[in-house]
C-alpha cells in the first residue's frame, strides 16, 4: 500500500472517530409535572450519539443547552444548576461546580424573556461510580427555585 493511500485511510479513520465520539443534539424528555419558564431549543451532550447516553467512568460529560426565557416569564436575577440521578425511581442529588450558573456556565444574568442563552457545563463521572442505568435530571432554577428549564436524559454509567 502506498504512503498516500495509508495517509488517506488514517485521515478517514480519524474523521470517523471524531464524528462517532462527538456530541449529538438530543431530544431530552421533559420533566413530569414541572412548569418551565423557558423554551429549550437545543441540547447537545458529548459523548451521546444515541439514547441511552453511555457515560464512561473517569471521563467528563459535556452539555450545551440553548434556551430562551418565554415571553411573560419573570426576569431571572439568578440561576442555579440542580442535577439529580434518578435510579430505580429514587432521585439522588449530584453536586456540581456549576451551582451558580450565572458565574460558571456562560449565561449572563439577569436572564430576560426573549433572549437566547447558551448554557455550558461539564460533569466528571467518577471512577468509583457503579455501572447503573439512570435518568440524568437537569434543572436550571431561578431565584425563587422555579424551573427555568428541566429535562431528563436516559443514561448508563459504564
Automatic annotation (TrEMBL):
The keyword Disulfide bond applies. GO terms for cellular component: extracellular region. One of its GO terms (molecular function) is sterol binding. SUPFAM superfamilies: E set domains. It is found in: Secreted. Residues 30-155 form the MD-2-related lipid-recognition domain. It holds the Pfam family E1_DerP2_DerF2. Keywords: Disulfide bond, Secreted, Signal. CDD domains: Npc2_like. Residues 1-23 form the signal peptide. SMART domains: ML (SM00737). GO terms for biological process: intracellular cholesterol transport. Its main location: secreted. Belongs to the NPC2 family. This is MD-2-related lipid-recognition domain-containing protein. It comes from Patiria miniata.
Amino acid at each position: 500500500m502506498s504512503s498516500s493511500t495509508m495517509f488517506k485511510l488514517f485521515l478517514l479513520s480519524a474523521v470517523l472517530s471524531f464524528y462517532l465520539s462527538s456530541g449529538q443534539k438530543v431530544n431530552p424528555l421533559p420533566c413530569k409535572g414541572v412548569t418551565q419558564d423557558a423554551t429549550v431549543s437545543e441540547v447537545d451532550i458529548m459523548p451521546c450519539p444515541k439514547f441511552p447516553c453511555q457515560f464512561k467512568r473517569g471521563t467528563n460529560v459535556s452539555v450545551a443547552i440553548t434556551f430562551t426565557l418565554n415571553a411573560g416569564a419573570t426576569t431571572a436575577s439568578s440561576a442555579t444548576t440542580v442535577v439529580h440521578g434518578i435510579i430505580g425511581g429514587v432521585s439522588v442529588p449530584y453536586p456540581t461546580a456549576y451551582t451558580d450558573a450565572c458565574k460558571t456556565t456562560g449565561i449572563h444574568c439577569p436572564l430576560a424573556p426573549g433572549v437566547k442563552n447558551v448554557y455550558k457545563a461539564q460533569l466528571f463521572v467518577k471512577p468509583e461510580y457503579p455501572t447503573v442505568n439512570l435518568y440524568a435530571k437537569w434543572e436550571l432554577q431561578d431565584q425563587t427555585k422555579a424551573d427555568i428549564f428541566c429535562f431528563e436524559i436516559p443514561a448508563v454509567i459504564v
